[in-house]
Amino acid sequence: MAWDWIEKSTKRLQELGGEYKQHHALLERLLALDAAAAREEMTRAWQAMDDRARAGLKMTLAGLTLSQQAATSSAEAKLRLERLKALHTLVDRPEQDAPSVPRPASTEAAFTTGAARVTNKLADVAERARPRAGQLIESARKGIEQHGPAVESAVKSVISELLKADAPPKSGASAAEPAASSTAPATALQGQWSGTLRHLASEGTIACDLNVAPSGRPVWAFHDTSGFRERELTHEGQRLQYVPPGGGVATVTVQSVTGSATETGYVVDYSFEGSSNGYLTQKYQRLVLTGRLRGAQLEVSYSEAGVSSFGDKTGLAATEGATEYRGALTKKA
Asked: Are 114 and 55 in contact (CB under 8 A)?
């Protein structure tokens, strides 16, 4: 088992090294082209990439820009920095011009994109610090140190946005249940959304009702022995456990949660264990939901993957499967 993990990790590192070389070569080629030719080639290359490759390209570009800030000041260095900034615009523009096709972003791609934003923030702070220094390299470093709080603030803001970290609960609040977000400014996502999601591999459909809190984070709705209840999903590691009306125990563990003015979603592990008349039912699933606001509609992607088993003391019959649905929800008046 350990050797398999080491072998997979080594292979992934080799893949990352190869991807970085490809991204670096593409960016260097774009730097040598005029604006029109660079835009045309960038658009063509961008459309051929998946979300992981796009995130890797952004990270490579951000790293080149940050390293250029420390280069000795010269006409060539200044020109290269200006062209790198122009490439940032080219990287963003194909993403805006490309057809809007909802796709589930991988955790690796999301984290790499966030890291690229952090690196870009650092590059911007370094650029602002350089003109204030009296000397070239040494004074630029001193300028960055002088503006350390600004760097720290920039990094914290981006990491907070990336991880969607909540503020620590106030005194008297339960650690398992952070302070409610009812006092937070309402977002355009707040409210009840409903519609139909279509199975990607068949003509099957499911009804979807989604409640979004003022923070933009989704609300988990469930029935227990006390009736209908709702809980806002607020942070990684949050755990909900309840007894459904038919008995057994259901457990929801939050792996990640998203909430902003235009996006909402979660990744949760759901499990259920129950017994009736000598029969044991078990279910373990990874549920993923992402919603993006597009005009007056909320475009939603939802997937389930896991295993279910049913049986008695003589043995269990297990089934494994994965399904994915997509569709658009409309907000209830």
From this structure: no
